[in-house]
Amino acid sequence: MAKKYTTIKDIAKALGISVATVSRAMRDAYDVSPETRRQVLEAASIMKYRPNFNATGLVKSSTHKIGVIIPAITNYYFSTVITGIQEFALEKRYNIILHLTNDSAEWETKIVRELSLTSIDGILACISSETDDLGHFQELIDDGLPMVFFDRAASSILTSKVVQDDYQGARIATEHLIKCGYKKIAHITGPSGLGLTQNRLRGYHDTLEKHNLTSFGIIHSGFSRADGEKDLDQLFSTNEELPDAIFAVNDRKAIGAMLELRKRGVIVGKDIGIIGFTNDPISEIISPTLTTIAEPAYEIGKKSCELLIRHIQKSSFPIQELILPTELIVRESTMRL
């Protein structure tokens, strides 16, 4: 049985008003009262109405537009991913429409539920660090919209995904610290609900266990430099014995920790080693330079766009999960001499 989509007629019937009034309320026309508009918008949300959706079931023509839902554009990783997406999309004559969530689950849900499904051919999505309810993404898939997750993928949703090898990258990072002579290794990481956080934490734990070592502290927080500073402060204030190395979930947190160590007169590398995860250009500029795990950000963008276009062009194209390798970049922050 074909799925029945909500129309403005359904909303009008539910509220006992005319279709014309519903239409004008949605356009915020001057002759509709604020209360009527509020009722219409509330009903539209509850009834999961999508603006301009082709409810007749007719085949919609291709728009050659791809929506990209992303937490941020101001950091190196996401800007590089977007470059990979855009360059491949333009090569295939697709335009991208960027939707920025500011890493907010509330904004992400609002953006997804207000998408016009006739204005795009598919969605590339990286979930916010706050997201725990993925129902809004499942609704898009149920509506038949092709979707590919990248970087922060929703494991519970059956769709294609493109990610870096977070588990192996964390193993490489922890192994490197151990080979450099560090034994008391702490991990400052991201929100506990994210897949990448869990995979990097698992890689860290498994490598410590391999060498019969135990963790010297795990702190979950956000991904910013300020979060790294706060995490370092927490490590110092809650532990009688300090770690001799820190594995940070990304470079921004690693740099935040380095700056906080500098304030405390701790020599990075000699006293406490630090390794990050990203290979942000700033890791080569800060002193000492930051050892890190390089992520294939450009390739993640390119491959996720390529995969989405395959799904757009062939509805029966099989679901795939691509896991791209990471690389260790050794610099001064893990040199003990």
From TrEMBL:
Keyword Ribonucleoprotein assigned: no
Top-level taxon of origin: Bacteria
InterPro entries on file: HTH_LacI (IPR000843), LacI/GalR-like_sensor (IPR046335), Lambda_DNA-bd_dom_sf (IPR010982), Peripla_BP_I (IPR028082)
Entry keyword set: DNA-binding, Transcription, Transcription regulation
Keyword presence, Transcription regulation: yes
Domain HTH lacI-type: 6-60
Molecular function in Gene Ontology: DNA-binding transcription factor activity; transcription cis-regulatory region binding
PANTHER family from the UniProt entry: HTH-TYPE TRANSCRIPTIONAL REGULATOR GALS (PTHR30146:SF109), LACI-RELATED TRANSCRIPTIONAL REPRESSOR (PTHR30146)
Stated name of the protein: LacI family DNA-binding transcriptional regulator
Source species: Dyadobacter pollutisoli
